[in-house]
């Protein structure tokens, strides 16, 4: 590897054969991509399908089953052993499939969030996936972006890069493209003419030549193999996992107990084994974790289609609990399509008519526009703007007054600058002006007034008096009351090139403009919808208070100016006072990113679950601190995206509300699946335990329970997990995150459903025996009669579970209100379930293997009737709940 930091820019460019003004051509880039490979660090090798398969076998149920297979084998019940082993394999295959599908979904989402970079190719600036970057590319560096590869800088303007990923040093280092380091041992932290992959530009801008990609970078050398283990369980998954373990141990305890009881009942050893195994199979809730994983994965895939990319799975659960949405104004609540509609220089107000292109300005106005245009980085060509919309509006304004950006730039060369940041709310450039230089500053009018000592009035520079300040502020206030964003401009002349620190002082105020930024049309509805859902929307903005409140009123966020507060006012309050006042505040104006952390803290101190949006470098702390940090997909910096839980690909406030709705639905669906699975397991346990306690023959064999648990149950459970959303979900209050999973009668319904299913299974068993003249207490019941009765129990158990799943779709609405056929997957799962059930008992070899037989038509009638009872009972309870809710 050559030592790029010791070479001049020219040497480096020559060696990599690229002209920095044009960049590589697409063909060259393609060739180099093939030669050097994709620009990404090696990942840990993925688990193979085989490894996944064996991972599935590592759980308690499987141990029990393998034990059972061994025992049945030992005593010569080979058919049972085969069935059990088949079930083990099938279970693992289904598990692998679900895990694979879930993983694919997450992977696809991660692709959507891989960083992109700006490069110059074919003479144009293009945004490409960072993985496509090749040596020789010219990369444009902006504050807030990750450095995508190792770069030899060829241009730098106040560039600072935070290199903690490499050096551990969190204070950003200053970069200078013109430096050359002769010493070959220069430490990484001192290589000021280089930028390294995975570090972060925090300030300024620059350009760099790609000298190393992928594993050939400094970070690649350290991280030979990147250990990206992102397997984290969501709180809900963790809780269910614990619940599963507890239930599993309980099951084993009960098994042992039953075993002892059965011993006293003089049952045969072999029977006892089978009973104990049946019970273990019935009680161990094997499907829970898998169901939650797949429902979450399918859910986040669905959310990505409505423009919300969830980066961390736990966020889905938290989303359902959000009751405060803090949102930036510009671009999220508004369209970020700025247009200048008014301008003001002292004693001269001017409306800017739309469409007009040949406006004539006074001398002061021309100076105003000149400063604005020169102090902007945006471009506007052929009706299309790039860069900050605020600046695009200024350049469009310049065009209207025949002061085109290009022409001005050529005439007044830029020689220095101090970039915009949202703390100062100012930006300055230093341009040539005749034989000397001129500072052009633009920004928030209040801040400009603070650093101005003079004003430009009718072409002359006069001292800025208090009275003049008042006049300016009055006019500006009127504009902001009309929801206009006010931006001021000032200048000063110097003889020499001055450093950025000296630019923003002793300025001459020229005037200001007012620009509109219309609200997004759909946002008003979303705010209303959020309100109905018990969610308060709050606006946070760097803009002026009056402007902010005017827009907040329009959108329904606030009703009066009393509901607003400014950053300065916040600074004067203690944390306690602020936390007390915050309850009534809906608009936070003129705030800096640091205030956002304070705001989140204060809201959280009242137990609120807060979502916060952000896009800038400095927004990362507040995004991390919020319960749900939301980054902007279009305008957001890499840093903000990295710190967020969710990314909006359309930067739209409405998407947050839609995501909350999805989040609520996903949580509800998980709940439905889990409660359903638990009621099914409980039903089986009750049927078995009761038969043992009362000394009856067992109504179900282990293989039969296995069949139902792993085949018939899992289809409706998954179908419940993808239940279409309840349209009334946004009419309810947010879920309390501390609330138990079994709150609101979910636990009761699981127990009730389970108990009914258990009792009905036993009753069907009894009917089967009674039809042939036996009762539950009879001794020496012939095997074929037991088989017949067990078949009835078997079908009722499966059938009642299948029907019951319909009722699980909504806690209070009837199955008809929800729509009997509105979840096609569930209808399909039920039909398939019945077909499978019918198949098992009527296909001869299956029937023999599972020790079941075909039923008479009359008995089919009985089992279907029984099967409908748990569903019906639950529906009747719902009727009472609905009338109760009305009163
Ligand atoms: P939000 O936080 O809702 O996105 P915002 O976009 O108004 O609001 P900032 O971008 O931090 O917040 O801008 C704050 C203030 O800084 C603006 O009100 C404006 O006065 C000033 N400002 C914005 N953009 C520029 C710029 N490019 N140059 C100079 N000043 C600017």
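-> sequence recovered:
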């Amino acid at each position: 590897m050559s030592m790029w930091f010791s070479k001049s820019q020219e040497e480096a460019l020559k060696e990599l054969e690229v002209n920095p003004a044009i960049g590589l051509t697409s063909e060259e880039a393609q060739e180099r991509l093939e030669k050097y490979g994709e620009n990404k660090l090696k990942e840990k090798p993925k688990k193979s399908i085989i490894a996944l398969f064996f991972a599935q076998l590592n759980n308690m149920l499987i141990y029990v089953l393998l034990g059972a297979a061994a025992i049945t084998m030992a005593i010569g019940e080979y058919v049972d052993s085969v069935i059990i082993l088949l079930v083990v394999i099938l279970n693992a295959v289904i598990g692998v499939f679900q895990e694979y599908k879930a993983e694919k979904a997450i992977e696809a989402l991660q692709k959507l969030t891989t960083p992109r970079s700006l490069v110059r190719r074919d003479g144009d600036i293009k945004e490409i996936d960072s993985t496509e970057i090749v040596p020789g590319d010219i990369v444009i560096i902006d504050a807030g972006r990750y450095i995508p590869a190792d770069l030899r800088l060829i241009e730098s303007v106040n560039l600072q890069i935070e290199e903690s990923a490499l050096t551990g040093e969190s204070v950003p280092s200053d970069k200078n493209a013109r430096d050359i380091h002769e010493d070959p041992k220069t430490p990484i932290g001192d290589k000021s003419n280089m930028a390294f992959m995975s570090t972060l530009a925090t300030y300024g801008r620059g350009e760099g030549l790609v000298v190393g990609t992928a594993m050939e970078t400094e970070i690649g050398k350290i991280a030979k193999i990147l250990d990206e283990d992102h397997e984290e369980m969501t709180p809900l998954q963790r809780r269910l996992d614990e619940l599963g373990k507890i239930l599993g141990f309980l099951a084993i305890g009960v098994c042992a107990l039953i075993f002892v009881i059965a011993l006293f009942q003089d049952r045969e050893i072999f029977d006892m084994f089978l009973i104990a195994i049946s019970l273990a199979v019935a009680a161990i809730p094997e499907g829970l974790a898998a169901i939650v994983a797949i429902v979450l994965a399918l859910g986040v895939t669905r959310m990505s289609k409505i423009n919300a990319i969830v980066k961390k799975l736990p966020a889905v659960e938290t989303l359902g609990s959000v009751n405060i949405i803090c949102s930036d104004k510009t671009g999220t609540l508004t369209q970020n399509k700025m247009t200048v509609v008014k301008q003001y220089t002292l004693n001269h107000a001017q409306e800017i008519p739309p469409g007009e292109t040949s406006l004539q300005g006074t001398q002061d106005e021309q100076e105003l526009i000149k400063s604005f245009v020169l102090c902007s980085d945006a471009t506007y060509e052929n009706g299309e703007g790039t860069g900050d919309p605020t600046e695009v509006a200024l350049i469009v304004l310049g065009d209207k007054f025949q002061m085109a950006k290009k022409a001005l730039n050529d005439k007044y060369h830029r020689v220095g600058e101090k970039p915009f940041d949202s703390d100062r709310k100012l930006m300055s450039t230093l341009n040539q002006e005749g034989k000397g230089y001129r500072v052009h500053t633009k920004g928030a009018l209040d801040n400009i007034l603070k650093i101005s000592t003079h004003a430009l009035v009718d072409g002359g520079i006069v001292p800025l008096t208090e009275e003049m300040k008042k006049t300016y502020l009055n006019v500006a206030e009127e504009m902001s009351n009309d929801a206009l964003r006010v931006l001021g401009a000032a200048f000063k002349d110097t003889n020499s090139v001055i450093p950025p620190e000296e630019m923003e002082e002793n300025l001459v105020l020229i005037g200001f403009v007012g620009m509109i930024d219309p609200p997004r049309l759909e946002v008003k509805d979303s705010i209303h919808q959020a309100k109905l859902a018990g969610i308060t929307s709050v606006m946070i903005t760097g803009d002026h208070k009056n402007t902010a409140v005017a827009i907040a009123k329009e959108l329904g966020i606030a009703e009066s100016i009393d509901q607003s507060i400014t950053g300065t006012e916040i600074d004067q309050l203690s944390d306690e006072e602020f936390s007390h006042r915050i309850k009534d505040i809906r608009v936070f104006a003129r705030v800096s990113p640091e205030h956002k952390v304070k705001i989140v803290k204060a809201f959280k101190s009242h137990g609120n679950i807060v979502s916060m949006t952000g896009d800038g470098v400095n927004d990362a702390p507040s995004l991390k601190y919020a319960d749900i940090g939301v980054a902007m997909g279009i305008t957001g910096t890499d840093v903000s995206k990295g710190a967020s839980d969710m990314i909006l690909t359309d930067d739209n406030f409405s998407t947050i509300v839609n995501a909350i709705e999805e989040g609520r639905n996903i949580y509800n669906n998980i709940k439905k699946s889990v409660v359903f699975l638990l009621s099914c397991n409980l039903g089986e346990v009750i049927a078995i335990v009761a038969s043992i306690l009362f000394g009856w023959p067992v109504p179900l064999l282990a293989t039969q329970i296995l069949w139902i648990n792993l085949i018939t149950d899992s289809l409706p459970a998954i179908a419940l997990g993808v239940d279409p959303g309840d349209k009334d979900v946004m009419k309810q209050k947010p879920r309390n995150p501390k609330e138990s999973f079994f709150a609101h009668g979910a636990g009761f319904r699981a127990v009730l459903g389970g108990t009914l299913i258990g009792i009905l299974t036993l009753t069907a068993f009894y009917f089967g025996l009674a039809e042939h003249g036996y009762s539950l207490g009879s001794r020496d019941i012939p095997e074929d009669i037991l088989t017949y009765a067990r078949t009835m129990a078997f079908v009722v158990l499966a059938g009642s579970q299948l029907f019951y799943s319909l009722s699980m779709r909504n806690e209070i609405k009837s199955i008809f209100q929800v729509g009997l056929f509105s979840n096609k997957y569930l209808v399909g799962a039920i039909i398939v379930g019945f077909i499978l059930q019918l198949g098992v008992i009527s296909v001869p070899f299956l029937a023999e293997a599972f020790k079941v037989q075909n039923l008479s038509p009359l008995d089919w009638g009985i089992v279907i009737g029984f099967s409908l009872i748990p569903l019906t009972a639950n529906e009747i309870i719902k009727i009472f709940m609905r009338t109760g809710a009305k009163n």
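The first helix runs from residue 9 to 15.
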